[in-house]
Amino acid sequence: MKLVKLLANLGYGSRKEVDKLLRSGAVTNAADVPYKHKDDAEPDDVRVAGEPLDPIFPLVIVLNKPEGFTCSTEDPDETIYDLLPPRFSKRNPGLNPVGRLDKDTTGMLLMTDDGKFLHQVIHPKSACLKVYHVWLDRPLNGNEAEIFGSGEMMLESETKPLLPAGFEVIGEKEVLVTLHEGRYHQVRRMFAAVGNHVLSLKRISIGNFKLPEELEEGEWREVTEAEIAMLFGR
To answer: Does 18 share its domain with 34?
Structure first.
């Protein structure tokens, strides 16, 4: 790929801005020799201001999302893109969340520029189960596991029952819920339907891939090929 197009697609600027970067000498090879032309370049050899290029397409990252950040690029408040390098929001193809978390939900959020991969993960038939750690306002009634796992539970204003959900009791007001689908505010609405209120909600895994323990809230890293396989139970 031509160097200008490569850098523009990775969000380093418009083609005009990237052209200025080249002329300034900020774009070099691994030997710190400035590129003086716009011909093809090997991405692994390119440096911008001395730093290696961001991963090229396809990119998958995992973010430990903090509370208070939305998944929309159009929200005037803080968004998940504020936690990433600014150029990530300018990538082409764009970097999008793989199944959104609402503003008050924390934990594991995947993001990718690969539309095919995105749809593979979020499709109900993908077997990419999502596990949520839930902290509740009131003690459990004792019948939630049966209701959630029945395959007959209906949410308000919906006409299709929920797929059976897994349910593991951790404490009097603390559970793990496993979903096969991702409807709008699903976990919160499920507990509201049984007379409880979710105080805190954190997604801790997708498929067999758990939120990396080393990732602090607000931190992210690239997902490995082995971890991608774990998403699909491989």
So the answer is: yes
